[in-house]
Structure formats: C-alpha cells, structure tokens
Amino acid sequence: GAGVSQSPSNKVTEKGKDVELRCDPISGHTALYWYRQSLGQGLEFLIYFQGNSAPDKSGLPSDRFSAERTGGSVSTLTIQRTQQEDSAVYLCASSPSWLTWGYTFGSGTRLTVV
Amino acid sequence: DQQVKQNSPSLSVQEGRISILNCDYTNSMFDYFLWYKKYPAEGPTFLISISSIKDKNEDGRFTVFLNKSAKHLSLHIVPSQPGDSAVYFCAAERHTGNQFYFGTGTSLTVIP
C-alpha cells in the first residue's frame, strides 16, 4: 500500500486478556519500529526490526510485551495479560533502512484496557 | 527520564503571525533532530530536520534553529496558517542509535 497500515484502529479489551496489534509497513521498507504514546507522554520506543537482524527489544516495558515480524514485512505486537496502564496509542513506523531518518508512521491503534 | 523536553504543552497564535515552538534536550550525543506534525487520529508526519553540523535549516515557511551549547532547538512557522494547527513533536537521535527520543509535544492552535 501507499502508507503504513495499522489494525485495528481502536481496541477495547478487558484487563487480563491478550491483544494483538498489526502493522503493515510500506513495501520495501526494511526497518520497522513500534512506539506507544500514553496520555501526557512523548512517543516511547518499544522495539525495532531491521531486515533479518535480531530485533532491538530494549524498549519493551515488560515480558508481557512481544513482537514478531514475519517475512521481513508485517509485524504483530502482542500484549499478554493486559493491564490498565497498557492503555495508549500504539504507533508503527517504517523506513527504507536504519540510516534513513524521518520515517513514515501509521495512524496508530488506540488500546483501551477496562 | 525525559531526554527531550517540550515545556509548553500548548500555544495559540493569530493567523499570519510567527509561531515558535521550543524543544530542549539533555544528551549531548544527539546529533540529528527532527520535527513531526500530528493531526488528530493520524500518525505523526515528518516536517523538517537538522543535523548537528548546522545551526539553521529552512524549508518554505518552516525554519528550525539549533543551539548546541544550550541544547535547544526551535521551530519557527512564518506566516502561521490555520492548517498548521496540530501537535508538534520534537525528536532527537544519536547517529549510532536505532531509535528517536521524542518530546511530549506542543499543541499549536492558529486562530483565523
């Protein structure tokens, strides 16, 4: 597609349930990033994929969070046993390579844990 | 620990006037800085950037100034237009890093 696509756009889930958030990057972009924005906070880095290299998971806040990127394209961010503090907008971005600044963001998934 | 700070959560400016958005950072290793603009329900979009070897970069109505000694950068929008109303994020990166550090954003309202 022309841009970075994220689904769902909105997700309401009960505390303790697992959720999966999906990101379709721009075709050919080798770098993919997940960020989240909580109320009143800046964008918080979560995880970074570059090609077939091992992902940089240094931003994942707990072991309840994990992400995969299949075939170097689509990525799924999974949050297990969701907590209320997980409520945030989760943003995905992609870029042609890690050397290219100014990535393209998707419109985000707004996650609400009730 | 917030390494990039935008201390003004909001700013209102009359149409046609100059908008100045400010950003401070703490890490002297940052060497590339960007501004993103975000409309409601959309992802941030890249606006303008500056490398640490420069102190000014201009693109149309948008100019970014970098003061390395003060660890401060600012975005100037002249003249401001109602369509500029959005949240503006400042971001910084180290050359060897994999991620950007974002500020908390400044919501700009341009009043017609």
Describe the SSE topology.
The complex is a heterodimer of chains A (114) and B (112).
Chain A: E1 5-7, E2 10-13, E3 19-24, E4 31-37, E5 43-50, E6 65-69, E7 75-79, E8 88-95, E9 104-105, E10 109-113
Parallel strand pairs in A: 2-10
Antiparallel strand pairs in A: 1-3, 3-7, 4-5, 4-8, 6-7, 8-9, 8-10
Chain B: E1 4-5, E2 10-14, E3 19-25, E4 32-38, E5 45-51, E6 56-59, E7 62-67, E8 72-77, E9 86-93, E10 101-102, E11 106-111
Parallel strand pairs in B: 2-11
Antiparallel strand pairs in B: 1-3, 3-8, 4-5, 4-9, 6-7, 7-8, 9-10, 9-11
Search tags:
heterodimer, A: 114 residues, mainly beta, 4-stranded antiparallel beta sheet, 10 strands, 46% strand, B: 112 residues, 11 strands, 0% helix
Helix content of chain B: under 10%
pLDDT < 50 stretches of chain B? none
Quaternary structure annotation: heterodimer
* Secondary-structure element pattern of chain A, one letter each: EEEEEEEEEE
What is the strand content of chain B? Answer: over 45%
Q: Count the beta strands of chain A.
A: 10
Q: Determine Rg of chain A (CA atoms, Å).
A: 13 Å
Contiguous helical run count of chain B:
0
The poorly predicted ranges of chain A are: none
Q: For the report, how would you describe the main beta sheet of chain B?
A: 6 strands, mixed
> Could you give a short account of the major beta sheet of chain A?
6 strands, mixed
Rg measurement of chain B, Å: 13 Å
End-to-end distance of chain B, in Å? Answer: 38 Å
**Largest interface summary:** A-B, 24 and 24 residues
Can you walk me through this structure?
Chain A is mainly β and 114 residues long. Chain A is built from no helices and ten strands. In chain B, strands 2, 4, 5, 9, 10 and 11 form a six-stranded mixed beta sheet that branches. In chain B, strands 1-3-8-7-6 form a five-stranded antiparallel beta sheet, with no helix packed on it. In chain B, a hairpin with a 2-residue loop joins strand 6 (56-59) and strand 7 (62-67). Chains A and B meet through strand 5 and strand 9 of A and strand 4, strand 5, strand 9 and strand 10 of B.
